[in-house]
Structure formats: C-alpha cells, structure tokens
Amino acid sequence: MAIRSDAAMVLFYDVEGAPADHDGWHSHEHLHERLSIPGFLRATRWVATDGGPRNFVTYEVTGTDVATSPAYLARLNAPTGWTGAIMPRFRGMIRGFCSVLASRGYGLGARACVVRFLPLPGQEDRVAAEIADRIDGMAYRTGIASVQVMRPEAPPPMTREQALRGADRALPWLILATGYDADRLDAATRQVTAAVRDLLQEATMHGYALDHTATAEEVARTPRPAVTGPGGDPAG
Fold first, then answer.
1. pLDDT tens-digit series, residues 106-155
2. Are residues 230 and 25 in contact, defined by beta-carbon separation less than 8 angstroms?
3. What is the distance between the alpha carbons of residues 185 and 178, in angstroms, rounded to a whole number?
4. Pairing state of beta strands 173-179 and 144-152?
5. E strands along the chain, which residues?
C-alpha cells in the first residue's frame, strides 16, 4: 500500500507572510512533535504547483480514533511558543480525519494530484465503488506510483491549537494520486474523476510537489532538533 494504514489526517491551508517561516517550523518542530504521538505513522508535506492551497499535509495514523486520543488532545491543548506564533497566520484551513477506502500501487511519487469532491446525496457507496474499480488499473500505468480514495469521518474536537487559527473547514472526500511523471499523473487523475463526474456535487483538482516526509520510526531514533523559534534556524 502507498498509505501505511487505513486512516489519515489531511490538511489544506495557506499561510500569510513568508512561507519559509512556516516550512522551518513545520519541518524542525511540528513534524517531530506530531510523529512522537502514539498512533502517528508518517507525515508528508506537499507544496502546490498550480494555485491550490499552498500546503497539503497528510498524517498517516493507526486509526481515526487517534483524533480523540488523550495523547493527541493533550498536545493540541498545549501549543509551543513557536506554534503560537505561526498558527495565527494560517488561512483557509481544511482539516479532518478520513478512512482510506481503497489504495492501489506502492510508495509515494514526488508529484501528486489531489481531487477534493463531494458525492451527490445517496450516491456515496456507488462513487466509492466506481473510483475503487477505476484506480485498479490507474496505479500501474507508466508515470504513476500510487492512488487512494479517502472518505472523511466526524470532525475532530476544538482545541487550543485550532483556536489560534480559527475554526477549520470540514474535509471533503479525496482522491490522492502520486507519481513521477506529472503530465501522465494529471491526465490519469482527470480521467478517473471525469468517469464519476455525474455522481458528484462538486470536484476540484490541484497538483502538488513533495516537500518533506518522515516516519515515526525515524523520529524515534532522532533527537528533537533544537530551534531558535520564529524566523530562526535549527541550532547546532
């Protein structure tokens, strides 16, 4: 499987001001912090290539119950000083936990196409089945590494971190396709989406490039980086 489990937390958002400040915080504090929480398996940050929300982040988790786990909520309700400085700059946050309904292929390509969509009422099962059937062949085309379809679960509870940036927007359904040939990836993802378009209320697709990925195993054997805080570089 491309996804290491059957569940993930997904975020889309922009950041006001210099993106380098956000990226430094996210790489040198936030990823390490999140992957130290039981239930978090891998984190991946992608950056938009065609005008979508700049930041697309996935956290692969052991199950959607991580959303209400004591360890996760404790972390969210005790934001660090650096988090407190960065999160008020977040804009348009779309965030939620989701179940991975189908996953085909293996690994993550350096490019991603992400379709955010909503099925027509009553068509959810049909949409899920048809997309799952169509990605069977897509994942093994030249240029494609992996494809999955994800269904959102109940929104996570409000926390102090969320209060810093304002209420999150609900996560829609997703197709996440990754590969190593951007043009072939784009064409194949559009073809799958077009095949079910009559069953959808809405659908948007954007391209992303892989920016940083890490696993919980890597974090467990790596000391948390010493950092200087907002605008600073890792110490040492």
1. 999 999 999 999 999 999 999 999 999 999 889 999 999 999 999 999 99
2. yes
3. 7
4. antiparallel
5. 7-15, 40-48, 55-61, 90-105, 111-119, 144-152, 169-170, 173-179, 200-215
Query: Which residue did the predictor score with more confidence, 143 or 2?
Result: 143
Structure tokens at 78: 């005790």
Q: Tokens 């489990």 appear where?
A: 5
CA–CA separation, 65 vs 35, rounded Å?
A: 16
Owner of token pair 């069953």: 199
Hunting for tokens 């965030």 — which residue is that? 95
Tell me 29's DSSP state. I
The answer to pTM > 0.85 is yes
Query: Helices 182-195 and 124-138, interaxial angle, to 10°?
Result: 150
* CB contact at 8 A, 178 and 95: no
**Burial, 201: exposed, middle or buried (Cβ in 10 Å; 0-12, 13-18, 19+)?**
exposed
Q: Which amino acid is at 26?
A: H
pLDDT, tens digit, 9 for 90 and up, residues 34-85: 999 999 999 999 999 998 899 999 999 999 999 999 999 999 999 999 999 9
